[in-house]
Amino acid sequence: MGAESKRKLFCELCPFTYKLSLQKNIFIRHVKNMMSKEKMAHEINETPFSHLIASHSSHLIKRGKGIDPVTQQNKAHNIRLACMSMNGLIIHPGETFSFWNRVGNTSAKRGYREGRVIINGKLTKGYGGGLCNLANTINRAVLQSPLTDTEFHRHSDALAPDEGKRIPLNAGTSVSYNYIDYRFRNDTDEDVQLLVWCDEENLYSEIRSNKEFPNYYGLSEEGHHFTKEGDKYYRISKIYKDTYDRASGDMVKHELIIDNRSEVFFDPSLIPEEMLRA
User: CA neighbours within 13 Å on the CB side: how many for 141?
Assistant: First the structure.
């Protein structure tokens, strides 16, 4: 039993088998996309719709102990490039947003640089690295809207120490061309618009419409702490989507969306002592 549990997957044997598995997954997803009946959003209008439904922002550049400044600069470059493919996207009723349908292959030929990626549970470098930050910043806004996540993959919500006040799900959305996608669908009866852009230090996302919806939304977190298991540390929490009636302000739904158990990828000495529990 012990030997079986330590047996490596085919993709973990060596770099060649990893690349072979990657190309297989990409090909299979291409076939699935061609056969899919999902209607993808494609119309672009960068003039902002009148009503802001939800927004979120995140830092482009993380600084601190153990953080490589070069890959951080490359991440910012990659995000700016990807934003150009989707800023102003209109998602009509029944249409789906697909991250990779908009961004395409993140190759060096298309201008992408090496940033941080997670491969087989380890931080390393790869072209297009850092785009998980863009997907997560969009997802944070979508979760605070009436839109419906239809494909969501998770990685660690503890890639770097919190900067200031804890923001639930400040990381944790995983994307990898093209088989690990992030998608959401517009199940409302109104057009909605996605805006994404950067300034020197920050990335911004907004979900807009030309109509005010009857509900508004927020995210909340319960039981947030860290724990040590063997040689590894984990962030533990429960993350909820809260729905409020706009007219009364009353909460009408408190829905658990993530039972969070994320491996810590930063220096564990940076975990606040009061947040570490047995």
Answer: 24
